[in-house]
Write a structure and sequence with these properties.
The chain has about 500 residues and is an alpha+beta fold. The protein is built from 18 helices and 23 strands. It has a seven-stranded antiparallel beta sheet. α13 links the parallel β20 and β21. The longest helix is centred in the middle third of the chain and has 15 residues.
Amino acid sequence: MKLPGAWWEEDHPREACGIVGLWSADRPAALLAMMALCALQHRGQESAGIATSDGLVAYLHKGMGLVSQVFHEGILRSLRGHLAIGHTRYSTTGASHLQNAQPFLSETLYGPLGIAHNGNLVNALPLRRRLLERGVGLSSGSDSELILQILASPPEAWGSLAPPLEPEGDPWIPRLRSLLCLSPGAYALVILTREAIYAVRDPYGFRPLCLGEWEGGYVVASESCALSMVGARYVREIAPGEIVRLDPRGVTSFAGGVQPSPAFCVFEYVYFMRPDSQREGGTVYSVRLALGRQLAREAPAEADLVIGVPDSATAHAIGYSLESGIPFIEGLLKNRYVGRTFIQPDDRTRQWGIRLKYSPLREVLQGRRVVLVDDSIVRGHTTRQLVQLLREGGASEVHLRIASPPIRHPCFMGIDMATYEELIAHRLDEEGIRRFTGADSLAFLSLEGMHRAIRETMPSPEGGYCAACFSGRYPAPLPEEVRGHPSPKFIFGRIRSAQ
């Protein structure tokens, strides 16, 4: 079976991308966008791109690889203008090719239109079919191109779905409202036009998007860590179903015309977001500490030390240590200079891959009973190898503690979560997973405990959360084409092969 991404990477879900959009009165917009994308690099490493506008002409550059590999000084100088959007990608729909890299840029009746997108369109298949039936050609397998084509069309082309709200004299607002009506999720968008930047979150608010400002500019980005990178002050989250415009007049907010029903993805807190990002009045780091503390209350262990899988589970492990009183210590070292590859070796070679990324500290582990804390288990192969590494390093016992519930269902809301067949918690019960991993004991955080830790840590939550990968209860309705299939990649892969 072909595994996504690098063959030596951790067995974790994959995020779709990071996005940024900004208006700057006195600083090069392209340079600021590149700096913000560097802060969002953890959200996607396959490709990066920036589109800019100087009020007359739009400019675009994108390429495969990390932000630092795609952009250099000469390219940034060629991206002229005071408006910019940027994107760094991990593919969830559309293969890993340059044609699927973002932003997408097109010419329309009202000038250039660029889009960068984080998420998946839940109903991409019927929308794609409607565009093709109207004679609209599509050049990629990315559902982001669908969004661009929808926005380039007049709202009446889709049956006047946009609710009859007062006109604002802006041709893009009715189109954005039509999009919000056409597809319930899951997306956060930044949009470049000749004279303004727009930001949109779907009515469920599955994916994060926040607003910042500095003297002389405004910025929207997937996470607040990108705001601080460009010297901006965090202002607030873009609300579910909200449309925001950035231009020389400032920040203007528009109602999307669809009743919001917030269902923010809890996995953003568990794994995806950078620990230093802030949201809802708290930090992601504080949430992960709380998850680790709750895990220690629910699943204590008799052990000598606590170890976290670096780097994603470090905060969870510290929380477990603080609550349990068991010392936290580094027991696994991570090689941060192992790059990405898309070579798919044989199964035997793949089993060695984890040793390229982690090594045990023998003097710490020798004869010790260890609590190994991780944020999640998806397929279970990496977890099993980590347990084996700790035993080879001298650990006498390995007690596995997972700071989230068992993942039993795939995600259709913009995260590559694997198929039902690949999810170990869908196939095996807790004892079966323990035997598979070789741990002496295994416990997951309960769904109730996870929600309790988040609620207690976030002072001003915007509403509910999506935990469908744990519970199977999807907040957005799934189309007939999607319901019953094992994975969104199966659906969209079939579309790509038909092109």
